[in-house]
Amino acid sequence: MNKIGKILSAIAVVAVILLGHHVYLVNTTRDELVEKNQELQAQLDRLRKEEERSVVMQSVNAQLEEIANEERRISDEQRIEAIAQTKVAEEMRRNAEIERQNALIAEQHAVEASEVAQSQRKIAEQQRAEAEQSKRVADTLTYISLARTLGQTAITQYKADHHEIADLLAHTACLFTNRYHGDIYAPTVYQALAMTSQNKNVWHKHKGSITDIAFSDEKSGYMITCSSYGEIMRHTNYESGKLTSEMLVSNPRYDFRDLFIDRLTNTIYVLSRSGHLVIVDSNKKVQVIEINMQNPKDLDVSGNQFIIFSETGMALFDTQSRTIVQEKKLPFQIEFMTRYQNYPLAFDRQGKMHLIKGFNNIETSRVPVKGQVTAFAESKNQHLTTYGMSDGTIYLINSKGQQTRLVGHLSRISKLKADGIRLYSSSYDGMMNLWLTNSAKIEPMTLFTTRGWIINFTFDLKKTNVWTGDQNGNLTKALISVPQMQQRLQDKLKRNLTREEWNYYVGRNVPYEEIKGKEARP
User: Fold this and answer.
1) Per-residue tens of pLDDT for the chain, all 522 residues
2) CB 463 within 8 A of CB 479
3) Is 233 exposed, middle or buried (0-12, 13-18, 19+ CB in 10 A)?
4) DSSP symbols for 458-482
5) CB 3.0–4.6 Å: which of 61, 208, 333, 367 could bond 227 by disulfide?
6) Strand partners, 416
7) How far is CA 9 from CA 3, 20, 169, 516, in A?
């Protein structure tokens, strides 16, 4: 019984435990269900909210889709429009390209046409320039030829003592020559200018022949002349028309042939053929030194010494001690003395010339021309040597040895001087001539004539005038400066050519112009 009771009790306990456990389980399950229910409710709420949101989103999406569809439709329309526009643009581009190509072709044609036009214009301009040049050349030749004809007519009128018309024609000749760049030294033009400008002054100063002329420096401003009658004269104001002269020495026992002015000390040395050297110092004090030489004739200066040449010898004279320091007899007889290549050059009477480089250094050679040489000159820049002969002939020899014979003097050539292309010559025939050595045909232009032999000539310091001394003791000054000659001639004119004179001398086909007051200088 007890055992059953215990079993029952155990069962009851187990039942209670099971019941409690069941209750616990039921409670636990219920709680879990409640919690689960709550979770489900929460999920449901969330789902409901999400559904509501989904509905909203679906509505929004539908709207967006509708908008997108609308935009896609618009985009499609725009794309179609763009494609259409692209086609239009492409067509326009193709048309533009075609037009551009056409424009390029047209431009190329225009350029080619322009080049053709330019070429034709250049050809036309060249032809016009050539025509103008031809006309200028023709005019130039015509007027230069006319100028030379007028010059010749002026010379003829001047020789006929019709000086007024000669002046007008000579000035017109110079005007045309310079205007058309002709050669003012053309013989007829230059001679007409020289004649009509009255470029000569003559003074009778010496009793004997004037044998030499020399100038001091420009500062001292005087000129010395000597004569064969033993006279030494000092002249001032030689640039004006009035010459002031002073006799320094006058002794007929002397026969002066050559003179030299020492410009540093203003001492004058004058050599006499009588065997005397006369020295005049700056105070005009005169000293006479006898020289034991046969017929001394020339001085050649070298520093403080100079060589005295006689017909048969030479002597070295010292200007400090005023004594002969060395003498030498020559194996030839001197006919004429000059200078060549900065050395004394002597011509003898046997057709030889002797270049004296020192007392013991004399180079002898044969004169390249026939006859007796009485004058000589060299033009260094033109490489020419000129020989004046006793018969009045002048020979011109160039660097190749080619000879040109110049004829223009009637008797002995007394002196030659070269100044570039210009060669000046004087002669015992009383003529002073100018030669242009670069001319194709070298002809003389007579600057002036005298009634006596021209013994010597030289230029003044400015080479404005040439001074000559003649056999009769006349000192002649002749203007050789072309600009000054032209100015003097212009100043002389008192009127213009009349139209009748113009038509007669110049020509009806040449436009008349007033020439008075017009400078003839270029």
Assistant:
1) 555 666 666 666 666 666 666 656 656 666 676 777 777 777 777 767 766 776 767 776 677 777 777 777 777 777 777 777 777 777 777 887 787 788 778 778 878 877 887 887 888 777 777 666 666 656 677 888 888 999 999 999 999 999 999 999 999 999 989 988 888 888 889 889 988 987 788 999 999 999 999 999 888 889 999 999 999 999 998 887 789 999 999 999 999 999 999 988 999 999 999 999 999 999 999 999 999 898 999 999 877 888 999 999 999 999 989 999 999 999 999 999 999 998 999 999 999 999 999 888 999 999 999 999 999 999 988 899 999 999 999 999 998 999 999 999 999 999 999 998 999 999 999 999 999 998 888 989 888 888 889 999 999 998 899 999 999 999 999 988 899 999 999 999 999 999 999 999 999 988 999 988 877 666
2) no
3) buried
4) EE-TTSSEEEEEETTSEEEEEE--H
5) 208
6) 425
7) 9, 16, 186, 181
Q: Are 268 and 227 in contact (CB under 8 A)?
A: no
For the purposes of burial, counting CB atoms within 10 Å of the CB of 418, is it exposed (0-12), middle (13-18) or buried (19 or more)? Answer: buried
- Dist. CA 218–CA 468, nearest whole Å: 19
